[in-house]
From TrEMBL:
Specifically methylates guanosine-37 in various tRNAs. The gene is trmD. Signal peptide: none annotated. S-adenosyl-L-methionine binds at residues 113, 133-138. Keywords: Cytoplasm, Methyltransferase, S-adenosyl-L-methionine, Transferase, tRNA processing. InterPro entries: Alpha/beta_knot_MTases, tRNA_m1G_MeTrfase_C_sf, tRNA_m1G_MeTrfase_TrmD, tRNA_m1G_MTases_N, tRNA_MeTrfase_TRMD/TRM10. The keyword Methyltransferase applies. One of its GO terms (biological process) is tRNA N1-guanine methylation. This is tRNA (guanine-N(1)-)-methyltransferase. Its EC number is 2.1.1.228. The lineage of its organism: Bacteria, Bacillati, Bacillota, Clostridia, Lachnospirales. Residues 1-224 form the tRNA methyltransferase TRMD/TRM10-type domain. Gene3D superfamilies: 3.40.1280.10, tRNA(m1g37)methyltransferase, domain 2 (1.10.1270.20). It is found in: Cytoplasm. GO terms for molecular function: tRNA (guanine(37)-N1)-methyltransferase activity.
Length: 250
């Protein structure tokens, strides 16, 4: 899978994405990540890419033309109109299912805004998806782009070892992951739950599923709306969250 990140701060993106699992996947040729500097497409002698917003207001706005020229150069290299994600607090909030859907693409372009954002007209022409990473405002789209690249990359076949990718993880089946423990058996007087030491796989699975339901009901009851729960699990969720199953939409 090939990621292209249009940004004014390419070194920030590249430094952050070339370590650990993602860095290894790049070295193995499973992924390519390229930061493209929008400033290379500045069209004045000062190399500036921002200007005051019409109508007044604080801050500067990234101008349409450098962003457009940067995009056109990419489109030409890719050889088709790519999917272009504009990172924006005004977009749809990023979630795991969205990551799964993006992971099916061959090419993905991210557009990072800075300052007060980007001239609306170029967004209208090139952006296919508006995505936010949460209800707060950051100084730029670089960190959100890195978060998305990370979440999408680990779903690309081969990036994680097969045994790891087959494991249950948070948000799968609309539940959070159960608690996990490693050696030593006792730490700070806390003992690993007995069932995990039993070697009894069916009991371990039952315990983990129950813990997932408890954890989700406690921390993210909103997720349970889409989870498929047995009648017994619904009762458990109700008990933990203090809400009636009906009120939770279950
Ligand atoms: N004036 C914009 C507004 O109120 O919607 C905010 C601009 S923000 C200071 C600058 C850039 O940071 C945005 O263009 C966007 O690329 C990025 N950004 C900020 N918060 C974000 C978020 N929660 N998710 C994704 N991108 C974000």
């Amino acid at each position: 899978m090939n990621f292209y990140i249009m940004t004014l701060f390419p070194e920030m993106v590249m430094d952050g994405l070339h370590t650990s699992i993602i860095g290894r996947a790049v070295n193995n040729g499973l992924l390519s990540i390229e930061a493209v500097n929008i400033r290379d497409y500045a069209f004045n002698k000062h190399n500036s890419v921002d200007d005051y917003p019409y109508g007044g207001g604080a801050g500067m706005l990234m101008q349409a033309e450098p962003v457009y020229q940067c995009y056109r150069a990419l489109e030409e290299r890719i050889g088709k109109k790519p999917r272009v994600v504009y990172l924006s607090p005004q977009g749809k909030t990023f979630h795991q299912e969205m990551a799964e859907e993006f992971a099916k693409e061959e090419e993905l372009v991210f557009l990072c805004g800075h300052y007060e954002g980007i001239d609306e007209r170029v967004l209208e022409e090139i952006v296919t998806d508006y995505v936010s990473i949460g209800d707060y405002v950051l100084t730029g789209g670089e960190l959100p782009a890195m978060i998305m690249v990370d979440a999408i990359s680990r779903l690309v076949p081969g990036v994680l070892h097969n045994d790891v990718s087959a494991e249950f993880e948070s948000f799968q089946d609309h539940l959070l992951e159960y608690p996990q423990y490693s050696r030593p058996e006792v730490w700070h007087d806390k003992r690993v739950p007995e069932v995990l030491m039993s070697g009894h796989h069916a009991n371990i699975e039952k315990w983990r599923r129950e813990q997932s339901v408890i954890r989700t009901a406690k921390n993210r009851p909103d997720l349970l709306l889409k989870a498929e729960l047995t009648e017994e699990e619904k009762r458990l969720a109700e008990e933990i969250s203090g809400c009636k199953a009906g009120d939770m939409g279950l």
